[in-house]
Write a structure and sequence with these properties.
The protein is of the alpha+beta class. The chain contains 16 helices and 10 strands. The protein folds into 2 domains: 103 residues, no CATH class; 325 residues, Cytochrome P450 (Cytochrome p450), CATH 1.10.630. It has a 5-stranded mixed β-sheet with strand order 1-2-8-5-3. Strands 4-10-9 form a 3-stranded antiparallel β-sheet. It has a two-stranded antiparallel ribbon with strand order 6-7.
């Protein structure tokens, strides 16, 4: 019996002398990675003189995510995030990650999600009641503020003192700065004392300082406020000592602030833009909301009846993928789909590329929530759509995110139409996630 010897992956075309494919990854990473979908399941690229590997096949991408022993946390995104967030759940690996996940998991059990849904519904209803017919609203800013309010109330109790507007604006600055750092393969440009780099350092320091001040306040009182931070601080090892160091608590809180606000607000903003651009989808959404809610705010119990609303959110997650690419690093030499990948290599994979591939999603640029009807969704290859990743590093708060996005969308769209401002075309801002640059819309009361 003969076995096939693993082979080296083919190199992507278009590499430049010295730079390789670094310029394409910096300027148009989404288009570049989408272009690799038609080629080999695994492709070698060059970032300057250093080789890296891009996985293009859904099943192989799923393998990369699930086999954390071989494909560990690492690569440019992870290292840049670690500089700011330390070793929180979104960055850590191995035994530390398993331990932290077990400690934090109770905060996302079903009963907790039901409670979180109540505050999401209240906050969305309060925002809805603040709008006036014909008012022009900066929807991107409103969704940022609402998502931050929701996650703040989950992490901290309501009496926590914090400049929440500054915290959210600092988060936006830092995410944009991280995107620039990832694209700077030499590491030189983002170290120059430019105004933008100085702003990044200033706002990153503000985020860290704010979190430490709140943790110190909680430590000084020593009371259980019934929120996530109290749970982290009061967790104990078997010997009765605190389960987390002060630094680990800080890292977890920082991670939850970013993961629990930015991607949710981005998705909601893009959803309102897509609905305004697709009147048929908007009409169907409104019909479902009228039938299920009849003008009242949405709650957790309504989620099973909001089928079309969920499909609308799902289609936005596909068309406006929150993150152009992710990366792992091989802990040892690996064989993936018959291709040899050396130890210590950076391995990229792109859900953005999968979500816009015509081989997986026919007419991929068309906004079509009915792609996610059960009979149509079942033909999508396994692993081709994972908005919250998979495996041991899959998002611990995925059910939290689904509940928040559906409840907020249903509550606001049940009472209001959001109309585009003539002549304004929103664009994605360069960032790790996909925030909208600006989204002014006019709110029109629905009868």
């Amino acid at each position: 019996m003969t076995t096939t010897e693993p082979k080296a992956p083919p190199e992507a075309p278009g590499g430049l002398p010295l730079l390789g494919h670094a310029l394409a990854m910096k300027r148009r990473a989404g288009d570049f990675l989408l272009g690799l979908q038609d080629g080999s399941p695994v492709t070698r690229i060059r970032l300057g003189p250093k080789p890296a590997y891009v996985v293009n096949d859904p099943s192989l991408m799923r393998e990369v995510q699930r086999d954390s022993d071989v494909f560990g946390r690492g690569g440019p995104i992870t290292e840049r995030f670690r500089q700011l967030f330390g070793n929180g759940l979104g960055i850590s690996d191995g035994e530390l990650h398993s331990r932290q996940r077990a400690l934090i998991q109770p905060a996302f059990h079903h009963g907790k999600i039901v409670g979180y849904a109540e505050l999401m519904s209240r906050n969305a209803a309060r925002l809805s009641e603040s709008w006036r017919d014909g008012q022009r609203v900066a929807v991107d800013e409103a969704m940022d503020a609402l998502a931050l309010e929701n996650v703040t109330q989950v992490i901290f109790s309501l009496d926590t003192e914090m400049d929440r507007n500054h915290f959210m604006s600092a988060t936006t600055v830092v995410l944009g700065g991280l995107f620039r750092k990832i694209g700077d393969t030499t590491g030189l440009l983002t170290r120059l004392p430019t105004p933008r780099n100085r702003e990044y350092e200033r706002e990153a320091a503000y985020l860290r300082r704010s979190i430490r001040e709140v943790i110190a306040d909680y430590r000084s009182t020593g009371t259980d406020r019934g929120d996530l931070l109290s749970m982290l601080l009061l967790a104990r090892d078997e010997d009765g000592r605190p389960a987390m160091t002060e630094q680990q608590v800080h890292d977890e809180v920082m991670t939850f602030f970013i993961a629990g606000s930015n991607t949710i607000s981005n998705t909601l903003s893009w959803t309102f833009h897509e609905l305004a651009s697709n009147p048929a989808a908007e009409r169907r959404l409104h019909a479902e909301l009228d039938a299920v809610l009849a003008g009242r705010p949405a709650g957790y119990a309504d989620l099973p009846q909001l089928d079309y609303t969920r499909r609308v959110v799902t289609e936005t997650l596909r068309t406006r993928t929150q993150g152009v690419f992710l990366a792992k690093v091989t802990t040892r030499e690996a064989v993936l789909g018959g291709y040899r990948i050396p130890a210590g290599a950076t391995v990229f994979y792109s859900f953005h590329a999968l979500n816009h591939s015509p081989a997986i999603h026919p007419d991929p640029e068309r906004y079509d929530p009915d792609r996610w009807l059960p009979e149509r969704a079942k033909v999508i290859p396994r692993g081709a759509f994972m908005p919250f990743s998979a495996g041991v590093h899959g998002c611990i708060g995925d059910q939290f995110a689904w509940a928040e996005m559906i409840i907020v969308l249903a509550t606001l769209a049940g009472r209001w139409r959001l109309l585009p401002v003539p002549g304004h075309q929103p664009k994605p801002k360069p960032a790790i996630t996909m925030p909208v640059d600006s989204l002014p819309m006019t709110v029109q009361r629905r009868v």
